[in-house]
Design a protein that fits this description.
The protein is of the alpha+beta class. It is 47% helix and 22% strand. This is PP2C family protein-serine/threonine phosphatase.
């Protein structure tokens, strides 16, 4: 411990003990800054106080000195705990800064334009469970065709945001390319396989609606199956397709399937934040989700999406356990 600091502290304490004035107390309070400047630990401050007190009043009772020794030991552990806490706070602040940057990346780079295809009604909602959204929606608009990619990036922070940005720029390059679902997933898969760390996992469902033939074609990269609601039968059918997660294998093959939409039919594309919604009693059954969709089958696509989100959120006491994303393509009724 710096001898200069010890000497100055003794002088200040001596003056205060003699006068007990507000002025001398204020001098002591200001002097405490020196302890911080010299990086003196709390237990060492008490040792300085004990030494100064012993020189000024050496005949104090033994219990006084023992109590100060006890306080020194207490402050040693207090100092260690405080430093650990401060280190944790700094780490949390760094993580929060990273999340803020990642969120800004999402907000500025990942915007997409909703399709405006003849005869197609589109509704969607994507709500993060926390600050940053791990789900991603991208709409691709071409002549007589509207497509959508619904992706779920398993990862957080800047790496996840950069991964989404890479997918977005890959999708941007498909404006004049063959946009069939199997081809699109093949292209994005090769981009991800080449560029993304092995710790990142990405699932994606890609659907394309042809406004001339009313055909909805689709392919999946390890994603949740979509649901097709038939207005004629009032029944749901799962639209499942085989395919590995993006980036797992460079030459992965993605199966493509299609279904013709009749007036009033709609296709529901979701992430697992919808299909695996849970309450305190367990997972919400798919049958309950289908019932919610069916209740609003005659409404617009956006009203259906909003209703499902509102009801599932209410069932979870407005505490989402995962990012929630749903996209609906509905064939308009003439």
């Amino acid at each position: 411990m710096p001898q200069e600091v010890t000497k100055q502290y003794k002088e200040i304490m001596s003056k205060y003990l003699e006068s007990q004035s507000e002025e001398d107390l204020y001098v002591g309070q200001q002097f405490s800054r020196r302890f911080i400047e010299k990086d003196i630990a709390p237990e060492d401050v008490i040792s300085i106080h004990k030494s100064a007190l012993f020189e000024l009043h050496p005949n104090l009772r033994k219990q006084v000195w023992d109590s100060l020794d006890f306080l020194i030991e207490m402050m040693i552990h207090y100092g260690l705990t405080m430093r650990e806490h401060q280190s944790l706070v700094r780490k949390q602040e760094a993580i929060q800064m990273e999340m803020n940057v990642a969120t800004k990346v999402q907000d500025t780079l990942l915007k997409t334009v909703e399709p405006d295809a003849e005869g197609l009604d589109v509704g969607w909602i994507s709500q993060p469970a926390h600050q940053m959204n791990g789900d991603y929606i991208y709409f691709l608009n071409q002549e007589n065709a509207s497509s959508v990619a619904v992706a779920d990036v398993i990862g957080k922070g800047i790496p996840a945001a950069l991964c989404m940005s890479m997918i977005k720029f890959g999708m941007d390059g498909l404006q004049n390319e063959n946009s069939s679902p199997d081809n699109v997933l093949g292209i994005i898969n090769r981009i991800v396989e080449k560029s993304v760390d092995d710790s990142m996992f990405i699932s994606m469902f890609y659907g394309k609606y042809n406004s001339i033939t009313s055909t909805f074609s689709y392919a999946s990269a390890g994603h949740e199956p979509a649901l097709h609601f038939s207005s004629g039968t009032s029944a749901f059918t799962e639209l499942d397709a085989r395919g590995l997660l993006l980036g797992v294998k460079k030459e992965a093959i993605y199966d493509e399937h299609s279904v013709v939409l009749e007036e009033g039919d709609f296709v529901v594309m979701m992430t697992d934040g919808v299909t695996e919604s849970r309450t305190e009693n367990g997972f919400i059954e798919m049958s309950a989700i289908k019932s919610l969709l069916a209740e609003k089958k005659d409404e617009s696509a956006q009203e259906i999406a909003d209703y499902v989100y509102s009801e599932l959120s209410r069932m979870q006491d407005y505490q989402l356990s995962d990012d929630f994303t749903i996209v609906i393509f509905k064939k308009k009724t003439v």
